[in-house]
Structures are given as C-alpha cells and as structure tokens.
Amino acid sequence: MDNSKAPLDGKVAVITGAARNIGRATTKRLASYGVSVVVNAVQDREAADAVAHEIFESGGKALAHIADVTNEDAVNKMMETAVKAFGSVDILICNASLRAQKPFQEITVEEWQRTIAVTLDGAFFCARAAAPHMIKNRWGRIIGLGGMSSNLGMAKRLHVLAAKAGLVGMMRGLATELAPHNITCNIVAPGQIETDRPKSAGPRPPMDTPPPINRLGHVEEIAGMIHYLCLPEADYITGQTMHVNGGVYYGV
Prior knowledge:
Blueprint: E1 12-15, H1 21-32, E2 36-41, H2 45-57, E3 62-66, H3 72-86, E4 91-94, H4 109-137, E5 140-145, H5 149-152, H6 158-178, E6 183-190, H7 219-230, E7 241-244
Parallel strand pairs: 1-2, 1-4, 2-3, 4-5, 5-6, 6-7
C-alpha cells in the first residue's frame, strides 16, 4: 500500500453536489488518497457517472448516486447505499447549494425556501443520516462549504448569504455535540473560484478591490483544504471556518 494514502485509506466519503467544480475536485482528490466516494448529484446522472468512472479508471473506488438532498428519504437511501457498497460513512462533505442572483424584493417565496432547503435542510438530513455511522466508528468528519459573500455581504444574493451563514451555525452546533465521539465539523469558505457557472448563478460578481493574491482561486485549492481537514493533523480543529480567498477577507 502507498504510505502516502495511509491516513485515509479505506475511509468512505459522501460528497453532495459532486458532479462538477469544487465537488468534483474534492471527490477526485479524496479518492486519490484511498477514500471510497459516493458522487452525489441532484439530476445530472451523466456528469456524476463521468466523475465516478474517472475515479474507477484511476484505480479508485466510487459510485454515482442521484438524490435530492432536500428529501430526507432520498438522503437516508443514499447513506444506506454508501454503507452497503463500502461498509460505512466516515466523511460527509455538504457541498450542494444554489447560487442564483436576484434583488431581494424580487426573490419569490419558492426561491427563498428552495435555496435555504438545499443548503440547510440538505446538510441537516445528511448529517443526521451519517452521524450514527461515525459515532459507531468513533471517528468522523463533517465539512460544509460556506462562502465569502456571507461574511462580506453582497447584493442580489440575500437567500444564498442567509443559507451559508446558517450553515456556519449548524456546523458549530454539530461540532459541540459530536466532539465527544471524535467527530470534527468545520466550514470551508471559498472566495472567488474559477468554476463553470450555471446560467442560474448569473455573472460572476465583480470585486470592488482585487485580493492581495490577485487571481481567481482554483477548485483544487479548495479541495486541498477539505482534504487537510480530513487528515489526523486536523484532529484538533472543529467548529471553525477556514477561509480560502486570496486574502480578500481575513476573518474575525
């Protein structure tokens, strides 16, 4: 066995929103270190299958699973599938989210509720379904994908900012409750990252002031931080928000 994989070799991860961009990069990185991965997408079976096939071709273990994370029964089935295929659930990456842009007075109730549901209900259902397996194993990692905009404030994204800010509170609560079981819970908050943006996300918001590291971030850099939080070296990090944004926001 490659010793470089040893810390995570044999672990099992479920990654939501894993068919593209940060989710895809994270899935591929964890798989390259011996993690068996469940590639979740809400509807794009072709993209999810492509990620799983790419991992399989590289010698890793992966399966694609289509599930809407706002549906508790679908989430429970996804975790059962992971356990049946790979034996457990050790790592949960809550990456699924919506990023639409619209002035707050034009946001419909349905758009508000759906945005909140994907980020918060999805993370809640996934964490509740995954936690018993982590508790049983006396080890686990739950990581949510936050956003720099919820710290800075940004026009036309009120529903997204509210959802991401709520996710921070959720992870802090989980961190406190699950720490006795050797489970850490953290947020990784990307800055402006070079990604393929769906039409629903609108154009990339302009930055008033360029970051000290004056470029867009890469999805692999976010995946690298997520990977680090899964390692034994991160055992003492929990309830934290790890900002990866080129220095445009330094945290508080």
